[in-house]
Amino acid sequence: AFFWLVSLLLSSLVWFIAVKASDPGDEPLQKGLLIFGVLFSVLLQEAFRFLYYKLLRKAIEGLVALSEDGCSPISIQQMAYVAGLGFGLMSGAFSMINLLSDALGPGTVGIHGDSELYFLTSAFMTMAMIFLHTFWGILFFHGCETQRWWEMAVVILTHLIVSGSTFWNPLYVGSLVPSYLLMFATAAWAYVLSGGCTQNLLRSLRGQQSETSPQPGS
Hints:
The chain is built from seven helices and no strands. With 218 residues, it is an all-alpha fold.
């Protein structure tokens, strides 16, 4: 969460300087700066995700050196999940802060013919971003571990697509539909990379024990 906050601070600072140094009356320029700010923020978030991976890698090496059996008490897959969830929760928290700020008024949503589903769709988008950051963390860390740079590139590309789709708003179908399709796709991919399979998923839904789970007393 801290690493995501630092990336947000730096990207906000760059965007703020760019806006102040430009003509506020030039609408095409301001829109271009907004697009630039979103793209720069995404790239900076992924850069900090990579820096966080490198930091965790050093931490694991230190834990292995201190352990008696030469094994780390926590796996890189667990760290990837927690790191992605931290990114997602902090991203969702800031999204909710912006929504609550808009909810204070003045005015009523939809009073000028705009969509009345602003808050509802924003909530669904925030939920999608939380899940996506979690799955992106798993995919990104796996790409770093296996040196499959194309997996890291896919994470960056899908992050850019989801963030860029928000420019379709207030046509919310243009942002929610592709975001949720990518969310389900990355969820399945992250599940497979984490060692999951269809049989274990069906067993868990039925409340049965997985084949790879330790039996009682073992």
